[in-house]
Automatic annotation (TrEMBL):
Transmembrane segments: none annotated. Keywords: Metal-binding, Oxidoreductase, Zinc. This is L-idonate 5-dehydrogenase. Its cofactor is Zn(2+). The keyword Metal-binding applies. Residues 23-140 form the Alcohol dehydrogenase-like N-terminal domain. InterPro entries: ADH-like_C, ADH-like_N, ADH_Zn_CS, GroES-like_sf, NAD(P)-bd_dom_sf. Belongs to the zinc-containing alcohol dehydrogenase family. GO terms for molecular function: oxidoreductase activity; zinc ion binding. Residues 179-301 form the Alcohol dehydrogenase-like C-terminal domain. It holds the Pfam family ADH_N.
């Protein structure tokens, strides 16, 4: 069976992997689709993401949907044949963060396809994977595997909006119209935002933000763009660039909230800290998600417009081309790998 393994910076290989056996409490899932995430692209292009560096070959991927094949000893979970989405996180359940209900920042979590710990946790870009049954979610009625592949990034977006507080009736700014930024738009809309403004350097990316429900699109590189708001109530930084963070700090109202969601470059980033002080802006981080995964599946089942954010489905044998496509934001939004056959 085939899988996508990153061996180092720029070295992505589609290779034969051993068939997984379900361990105690595990299920084997035949993966149908795996979404290519910004973090997968970072491992490919830079050999790491944020401050996590690759130290051994790793199967990429954490956005997986498929069908249950078999259950291991003592596993009670969805029956073979059930279509499922795979929650990529297994928090430890005993650390202080888990005890406080902040399982997404668990200090000892296992997250599919992540180099945050060593040995790395192998990912989901493989024809079949073995995962704990607790990580499986049967798809709600009416939700197909293809759209369900957005569950993981939509969960990230829902968590970021939750970190912003109550956005109902508010004007929300989103900097960065990649797949995550677009899903933040959808999440903010679902949470009742009154107005959503999105900035990006690329007009093609802004087009996807419009599909997701943005009201106003602004070219980030154009200070004269008529769409720039005088101020906003809440800002979510989804570009992962220091320039985006500074735009958020400049435009959020006094006492407003800025959520940093995009992973910034490794090390330190310059930002307009004095605005934070003099305007009493609250700067909050948002990392992964927890129970938002179930909310994401419900939202995906209810809304067809998400289909417009899936810009390509590429056979796994062409994973290199799929990654190049996903990295070219002028040509793509969310790119899915197809592991069928
Ligand atoms: Zn992702
Ligand atoms: Zn924990």
């Amino acid at each position: 069976m085939l899988g996508c393994v990153i061996h180092g910076r720029g070295d992505l290989r589609v290779e034969e992997l051993p068939e997984p056996e379900p361990g105690p409490g595990q299920a084997v899932v035949a993966v149908r689709h795996g979404g290519v995430c910004g973090s997968d692209l970072h491992y490919w292009r830079h050999g790491g993401v944020g401050d996590f560096r690759l130290r051994e070959p790793m199967v990429l991927g954490h956005e997986a949907v498929g069908t249950v094949v078999s259950l291991g000893a003592g596993a009670t979970g969805p029956a073979p044949g059930t279509p499922v989405a795979v929650h990529p996180a297994t928090p430890c359940g005993v650390c202080p963060e888990c005890a406080q209900g902040r399982r997404n920042v668990c200090r000892d979590t296992r997250y599919l396809g992540s180099a945050a710990r060593f040995p790395h946790v192998q990912g989901a870009f493989a024809a079949r994977i073995a995962v704990p049954v607790e990580q499986l979610r049967p798809l709600p009625a009416g939700l197909g595997l293809r759209r369900a592949a957005l569950a993981e990034p939509l969960s990230v977006a829902l968590h970021a909006v939750r970190r912003a507080g109550d956005v109902a009736g508010r004007h929300v700014l989103v900097t960065g119209a990649g797949p995550i930024g677009c899903l933040v738009v959808a999440a903010a809309r679902a949470a009742g935002a009154a107005r959503i403004t999105v900035t990006d350097l690329l007009p093609e990316a802004l087009g996807y933000a419009a599909v997701a429900g943005a009201d106003t699109l602004v070219r980030a590189g154009d200070p004269d763009d008529a769409g720039w708001p005088p101020e906003v109530d809440v800002a979510v930084e989804a570009s992962g660039a220091a320039a985006g963070l500074n735009t958020c700090l400049r435009l959020v109202r006094r006492g407003g909230v800025v959520v940093q969601l995009g992973m910034l470059p490794p090390g330190s980033s310059p930002f307009a800290g004095n605005l934070l002080v003099s305007r009493e802006i609250e700067l909050r981080g948002a990392f992964r998600f927890d129970t938002e995964f179930d909310e994401a599946l419900r939202l995906l089942a209810a809304r067809g417009e998400f289909d417009g954010l899936i810009s390509a489905v590429v056979p796994v044998r062409e994973a290199g081309a799929a990654f190049a496509l996903a990295a070219d934001r002028a040509r793509s939004c969310k790119v899915l790998l197809d592991f069928d056959g």
